[in-house]
Automatic annotation (TrEMBL), chain A:
It holds the Pfam family Oxidored_nitro. Its EC number is 1.18.6.1. This is Nitrogenase protein alpha chain. Keywords: ATP-binding, Iron, Iron-sulfur, Metal-binding, Molybdenum, Nitrogen fixation, Nucleotide-binding, Oxidoreductase. The keyword ATP-binding applies. SUPFAM superfamilies: Helical backbone' metal receptor (SSF53807). It comes from the Bacteria. GO terms for molecular function: nitrogenase activity. InterPro entries: Nase/OxRdtase_comp1, Nase_comp1_asu, Nase_comp1_CS, Nase_Mo-Fe_asu. The lineage of its organism: Bacteria, Pseudomonadati, Kiritimatiellota, Kiritimatiellia, Kiritimatiellales.
TrEMBL record, chain B:
This is Nitrogenase molybdenum-iron protein beta chain. Residues 24-443 form the Nitrogenase/oxidoreductase component domain. It comes from the Bacteria. This molybdenum-iron protein is part of the nitrogenase complex that catalyzes the key enzymatic reactions in nitrogen fixation. It comes from Pontiella agarivorans. Tetramer of two alpha and two beta chains. Forms complex with the iron protein (nitrogenase component 2). Binds 1 [8Fe-7S] cluster per heterodimer.
Length: 545, 460
């Protein structure tokens, strides 16, 4: 990182923030707030419990499992076993767009429905397994879905309902419906992140590999960790189609059970959101021999880079040429759009506190706009998301991670086939392609930028005061808090109902939206005019008689 | 078709709820707690619930919704949440400095049986609650009742925790407004002021979830019922509880503990319910109703007489909270509209009975359901069997409205795709005019849309 990127030293503000905390908490929070030096290996405390009473951005395991990973799959009935609330809150609130073809058979789409066993107190006292079995039966009778996923909520875990046993029984009974459960009680783990892991495990166990049909295309990939918020996935599909690359399955934007089942036939896995889905990439690699690397489709340059990486991987001149053609086709309008937006955005400052990977990816988009991210952090990242996968072997497993099942995956004797030889992968690595690797966010952030894991409300307030950012990116719970402080907030989970922001078209949308935010006149008119009167030069004159 | 899998045939479901017309208790408790000035709500359980409840309220009110959580993990679930809550209280008072903390439980802390009373006592004994600060609490297990129950439980928690009964009568009337919008609470206060009635209203989210943009974030906004005012409510002449489900609990508590008699009223939506509210308040406060109310009322009646032809005989389906649906149904009947399907997920037999009674004469075939499996899936099936001219309910209704091509107005909780509910009341005579405006707008826009060009008219 060059010196010109060096930011003002935030040590003082860090001290000020910590001073407010009781000493024990100050010590703990200090380890989660790191003044970045991209040259150093700095350890960041993350994926540890949120301190009770601290106002946090985080959600729960269930939210990560049902909401994030399974939510965007259209042809599964996601049945939430628990009292009504959990199902209600995850009902359509994550903006996963999908495009089921009504004309085609199997154009099933249950995403607009919320299914729940709506447990009542007698179910809590006497157990809810019977009710669950009955609910599965009723869902089957009414909807005849291909699959039913069953999600445990907190009380279910406590009373000991065995969702897996009930699911097994019902699967057998129904015959043509794949029923499987998730032990994703909210209290497991310390955030949504635990839910991602659980979701990956169960998809791997119950769905991946069920369909061995050979893909008909030449270059077959899976896109992992793309949830099609605001149609991001649609835009990425468009680019891939243009380049002639076949996406077998997207995990899990606009996805279907059949695509999951066939995904192990891909030649390559592309990991977008490292946090939510690195598990799936690793398991598929171990069992089927599919290599993976990290990509980022947020930002036009990043998109071009990701496409080129794919070209490199397939080592096919025709494909590479096609990719270059597409980039050349797409870039001029991107350049035009960014030049226009830059008039407003150049030199401005952003802060980003969002879920795994987005807090990293969006820095590239801001970079394209000439904006610098002065402070950032994840809501539910782990150390590797900040420091890179190299720290993985050294991370100590604590009690909260130990209760998330680590499934044992082995080579599939018959179906394992290494898609690329060791030598090839080594050669690609030498060329700079980070096979099976992720460097994390810290190395890409400026010297002296402030990285904060699991930011608290108090810290948010102080950092806004300190940095006075031109734009703050976070989620719905932070939105109006920040805006009431006079700083515009861009939601990066729901995109404030804009988007797509991925790919080339997405980048253009983002530039335009940021330009819009930065040139929104109302921010300058927040104070009533009469409040400024004292400071304003005021010409007071009187008539001369 | 967005809900393409919903069949027309209604089949009996015993265990499966689809598209609920209710949600869980804590979100209501959180909303009620925000109606006390200087209060930080706290969710005792795992942080996911708190995150969801804050998000749901934020999306509806488009304003900051602050709340703490005990952030349970597996360990707390096994060993109990006492230490989490003690730590949370200490931290919240140190870092966020509220005047009071209002704790509600979640399914998790309820299932493990955490005793909030005992933990709060311990916190106080251990000096974790600073001098002059207060902690109130209530139990909100989500496997009982609905979000409305949670609201009611917290309102009861508020009076239990804050009322100081001196025995010295105070010339004032308590109004418990029920789960309504901040705009409605403002309007109810306005009605009382215009009547010259002396009132204490709680909870009161006016000025808390509809705060002005001033460039300055206030963790504890200016609005909300003042702790010291609530404290005096045990000495009031009477309590008017608006809505049996949301408000009666607290009113009963005040009656049995402080001998403040109560009257349960409908939330003043529409003509009849507003009439009763105004009269009851005037009687309780011993004031005569000023003539200006004749004008206020007369304007609503005028709009109805002027426009009744457009609504007369139109079929309506509605869903939402019982306290809202009862007066709304009555209003629709006053407009000679025909309620054909009324659904509330909130349990309570009295609801079905009341709607049937109301509809007995003008809409005897009305379909009513509440409680478990009284969901929007059922409502939709009923609509498929008997198409309607208007659908009234929260934002989720838009999927049904689109699939079935029905004019739709948003009313209830949550409304996450439109604004207005926080700012314009639907209670009182003025609120009635707004409701009419919305209904007429929806129905007449449709008439315009569907008119053949030769039948398209300027004046309607
Ligand atoms: S666990 Fe209970 S309190 Fe929490 S969201 Fe679910 S239903 Fe509501
Ligand atoms: S980018 Fe963030 S919000 Fe999205 S799935 Fe990954 S972790 Fe979650």
């Amino acid at each position: 990182m060059s010196n010109e990127n060096k930011l003002p030293d935030p040590s003082a503000i860090k001290e000020e923030i910590l001073a407010k905390y009781p000493p024990k908490i100050a010590r703990k929070r200090a380890k989660s707030m790191v003044i970045n030096d991209p040259e150093l290996d700095q350890q960041i405390q993350s994926n540890v419990r949120t301190i009770p009473g601290i106002i946090t951005q985080r959600g729960c395991t269930y939210a990560g499992c049902k909401g994030v990973v399974l939510g965007p799959t259209r042809d599964i009935v996601n049945l939430v076993h628990g009292p009504i609330g959990c199902s209600f809150y995850a009902w359509l609130t994550r903006r996963n767009q999908t495009d089921p073809d009504e004309q085609v058979e199997g154009g099933d789409n249950y995403m607009n429905y919320a299914f729940s066993t709506d447990m009542q107190d007698d179910n809590i006292v006497f157990g809810g397994e019977k009710k669950l079995a009955q609910a599965i039966q009723e869902a089957y009778d009414i909807f005849k879905p291909k699959a039913i996923g069953v999600f445990s909520t907190c009380p279910v875990g406590l009373i000991g309902d065995d969702v897996h046993a009930v699911s097994r029984e019902m699967k057998e009974k129904l015959g043509d419906c794949n029923v499987f459960g998730f032990s994703c009680e909210g209290y497991k783990g310390v955030s949504q992140s635990a839910g991602h892991h659980i979701a990956n495990n169960q998809l791997f166990r119950h769905v991946i590999g069920l369909d061995d049909t050979e893909p008909k295309h030449k270059y077959n990939v899976n896109l992992l960790g793309e949830y099609n918020i605001g149609g991001d996935g649609f835009e990425i599909d468009r680019i891939f189609k243009k380049c002639g690359i076949n996406i077998i399955c997207t995990f899990s934007g606009n996805s279907t059970m059949d695509k999951f089942a066939n995904s192990h036939m891909a030649d390559l896995n592309l990991v977008m959101c490292h946090r939510s889905i690195n598990y799936m990439a690793e398991m598929q690699e171990t069992k089927f021999g599919i290599p993976w690397f990290k990509v980022n489709f947020i930002g036009a340059e990043s998109t071009a880079k990701a496409m080129r990486k794919i070209g490199e991987y397939f080592e096919d001149d025709e494909l590479k040429a096609r990719i270059e053609e597409v980039i050349a086709e797409e870039m001029p309008s991107v350049k035009e759009a960014v030049a226009k937006a830059k008039l407003k955005s150049d030199g401005k400052v952003a802060m980003l506190f969002v879920g795994g990977s987005r807090a990293h990816h969006y820095q590239e988009l801001f970079g394209e706009l000439g904006m610098q991210t002065v402070s950032a952090g994840y809501e539910f990242g782990h150390r590797d998301d900040y420091e890179g996968r190299k720290v993985l072997p050294t991370i100590k497993v604590d009690a909260d991670s130990r209760n998330i099942e680590e499934i044992k995956v082995e080579k599939d004797e018959t179906r394992y086939s290494p898609r690329a030889s060791e030598e090839k992968l080594e050669a690609l690595k030498e060329k700079g392609l980070e096979i099976s690797d992720y460097r994390g966010m810290a190395p890409d952030m400026a010297d002296q930028s402030l990285i904060v894991d699991d930011i608290t409300h108090w810290e948010t307030e102080k950092l806004i005061d300190f940095y006075k950012p031109d734009i703050f990116c976070a989620g719905i719970k932070e939105k109006y808090v920040v805006q009431k402080s006079g700083i515009p907030l861009k939601q990066l989970h729901s995109y404030d109902y804009g988007g797509p922001y991925a790919g080339f078209e997405g980048a253009k949308n983002f530039y335009a939206d940021i330009e819009k935010i930065l040139s929104t006149s109302i921010w300058k008119k927040i104070k009533a005019p009469w409040l400024n009167k004292e400071t304003d030069p005021c010409i007071c004159a009187e008539y001369v008689a | 078709m967005l809900l393409r899998h919903t069949p027309k045939e209604v089949s009996e479901r015993k265990a499966l709820t689809v598209n609920p017309a209710k949600t869980c208790q804590p979100v209501g408790a959180m909303y009620a707690a925000l109606g006390v000035h200087g209060c930080l709500p706290h969710s005792h359980g795992s942080q996911g619930c708190c995150s969801y409840h804050r998000s749901a309220l934020t999306r509806h009110y488009k304003d900051p919704i602050m709340a703490g959580t005990s952030s349970f993990t597996e360990g707390s679930s096994v060993f109990g949440g006492q230490s989490n809550l003690l730590q949370a209280l200490a931290n919240m008072f140190t870092i966020y400095n509220p005047d009071l903390v209002a704790i509600h439980s979640t399914c998790l802390s309820e299932t493990i049986g955490d005793d909030l009373a005992q933990i709060v006592k311990k916190a106080t004994d251990d000096g974790k609650v600073p001098e002059g600060k207060k902690v109130i609490y209530c139990n909100t297990p989500s496997y009982v009742g609905s979000h409305v129950t949670g609201f009611s439980n917290m309102v009861t928690g508020i009076v239990k925790g804050l009322v100081e009964h001196t025995g010295e009568a105070k010339d004032q009337v308590n109004i418990i407004p029920g789960w309504v919008e901040p705009s409605d609470m403002k309007e109810m206060k306005g009605i009382a002021a215009r009547l010259g009635a002396n009132i204490v209203m709680f909870p009161d989210t006016d000025g808390v979830v509809d705060t002005p943009q001033t460039g300055e974030f206030k963790m504890y906004p200016d609005g909300g019922a003042k702790v010291e005012d609530i404290a005096t409510s045990g000495d009031s002449i009477k309590t008017l509880a608006c809505g049996k489900w949301a408000s009666e609990g607290a009113a009963k508590w005040l009656d049995s503990n402080c001998k403040v008699p109560f009257e349960t009223l409908d939330i003043p939506i529409g003509l009849g319910a507003t009439d009763r509210f105004v009269e009851a308040l005037a009687n309780a406060a011993k004031v005569t109703i000023p003539d200006s109310f004749i004008s206020e009322r007369g304007r609503l009646v005028d709009v109805i007489t002027d426009m009744s032809q457009y609504l007369h005989g139109k079929k309506v389906a509605l869903f939402g909270d019982p306290d809202q649906l009862i007066p709304m149904t009555e209003f629709l009947l006053d407009l000679d509209m025909i309620p054909t399907a009324v659904v509330s997920g909130t349990p309570g037999k009295a609801f079905t009975q009341k709607i049937k009674e109301l509809c007995a004469e003008k809409a005897p075939n009305v379909n009513v359901a509440n409680g478990e499996r009284a969901d929007m899936f059922l409502l939709h099936q009923w609509i498929k069997n008997e198409p309607v001219d208007l659908l009234i309910g929260n934002t989720y209704g838009k999927y049904i409205a689109r699939d079935e091509d029905i004019p739709f107005i948003r009313h209830g909780f949550p409304i996450v795709d439109r604004i207005g509910h926080s700012y314009f009341p639907t209670v009182g005579y003025n609120g009635g005019i707004r409701l009419l405006e919305k209904m007429l707008g929806a129905v007449m826009d449709r008439q315009d849309r569907d008119a053949e060009e030769c039948k398209f008219e300027l004046v309607m």
